[in-house]
Design a protein that fits this description.
Elements lengths: L1 H20 L3 E5 L9 H11 L3 E5 L10 H7 L3 E6 L4 H7 L2 H12 L3 E5 L1 H4 L19 E4 L11 E8 L2 E8 L2 E4 L6 E6 L4 E8 L2 E6 L23 H12 L2
Parallel strand pairs: 1-2, 1-3, 3-4, 4-11
Antiparallel strand pairs: 5-8, 6-7, 6-9, 9-10, 10-11
Helix pairs in contact: 2-7
Amino acid sequence: MKIKILALCLGFSFSFLASAQARPLAFIYSGDGSCPEGCSNAAAQMAIQAGYKAIFIGPQDITEKSTPESIQHFFDGVKIWIQPGGQSRQAYEAMNRKLKEALLNFVFTGGGYVGFCAGAFITTHQIGTTGTPGFSIFPGSTAPLIAAPARPELEFSIEEVQWSGKSRAIYFEGGPYLYDLPPEVEVMATYADGKVAAARTNFGLGHVYISGPHPEAPKWWSSSDRVMDRDGNDHDLAVSMIKWAAQK
């Protein structure tokens, strides 16, 4: 009996380890431009909840000296790239040419992309109204929903959003709204004023899902000394974004 129990336990352990090792990978950008409030960590937690192994990467992971073979190997097993909140222009300018090309090729050939806030701004042909080019993986344009406040510490809020037909209160901090969207873009959420808050589309064989608000926001971002989220966290939305974008 002891041998049988040991075998069952070992079998469970081996199965668990094999399952953990077999988890698909999610790249989380954590270089220059990622916010100091832990935006990359928040995105990584959502990837983990969605069933992925989160790996932080930065501009130094692919350089101008990287070969096509090394870049292909770098993306082995990766299903999705998550671009967190922060400073979109800073993130874009921190990425070298080969890293940007590798990201675009990854998505175009079937990879997923999820962008929260700054990660949404950076997807279009131009980053908001800055004049700085973006990744051009999402058709249409972005612009700040709220004009920059005189006091930056007041830039965060809780926005009432209609997401897939349901009212949600979602943490917001300087994110965009989307406009001039072509028919192939599926609008998933709108702000109270009707402007587009979140949408998704295809880029080549890949899927891109972006959001101006922060459904990935951890609880402490909306604690009582900042702003209070009336309906709790919105992690289910962030997880669903990741799962949709990562599908083949």
